[in-house]
Amino acid sequence: MPSLDTLIVFTVAAVLLNLSPGPSNLYIMARSVSQGPRAGVVAAAGLFTGSFAHVAAATLGVSAIVMASAEAFTVLKWAGAAYLIWLGIQHFREAGGLIVPVGRVPAKSMGKIYRESILVEVLNPKTALFFLALLPQFVDPAAGSVTAQSLILGLIVVFTAIPSDVLIAFAAGGVARRLSANPWFALWMDKVSGAVLIGLGALVAAGEAPESAK
Q: pLDDT tens across 15-42, in order?
């Protein structure tokens, strides 16, 4: 079972990452802009459902690696830190590139949006890589079952996404207009997202995140 300190640090990190702009947020925003907040909320529900596949995959993957060898787990942690930093750098390099196609997303039924959203999330390789990069940083094999720790942390990521996704669904119109009309707003959002990812990766690389799990 993760320690209380680990749970607090990880929850804060998960909230910041869920609030930072990314493909899922933009997908919800596009649906809301096209068909209203209800469509955005349905899209968020589909993404939420699909994300459980990544929680399961990450939990089983991390557990298998830990059982294989401690060295392999260490390599995974360092690779995860490097991946988070790389994602942050990519956000800075592509700053200002956020685009929401206002009014150009084809209208669909709520059921189709939900099913499509599940598939979008399940088939998103970036989500799978992100889970494998983030979870191992806060897992301590000495603290108990790695499977249980990974599952708990994965569920935290999934459930902390709900408030931000719903907020985006209802606020999508205003945010989309700003993204479309104000390049500085898009630049700022990308830089915030990049800073969060780089900061988390640097924290892990410095050894603070693993220590907090002890």
A: 877 877 666 777 787 778 777 889 889 9
Domain boundaries, the chain: 4-97+109-206
d(CA 38, CA 114): 11
Distance (Å, rounded) from C-alpha 205 to C-alpha 106?
43
pLDDT at residue 160 is higher than 70: yes
E strand or H helix that includes residue 96? none
Q: pLDDT, tens digit, for every residue of 55-103?
A: 998 888 887 776 677 677 677 677 767 776 776 677 667 655 555 555 5
Position 69, amino acid: S
Task: Report the C-alpha gap between 153 and 150 in whole angstroms.
Answer: 5
Instruction: Give the Cβ contact number of residue 5 at 10 Å.
Output: 12
Q: 124-127: which pairs have CB atoms within 8 A and are 24 or more residues apart? A: 124/23, 126/23, 127/24, 127/51, 127/54
Residue 187 tokens, joined: 């630049």
Q: Give the C-alpha separation, 140 to 97, whole Å.
A: 38
Distance from C-alpha of 154 to C-alpha of 101, rounded to nearest angstrom: 31
% pLDDT > 70, the chain: 66
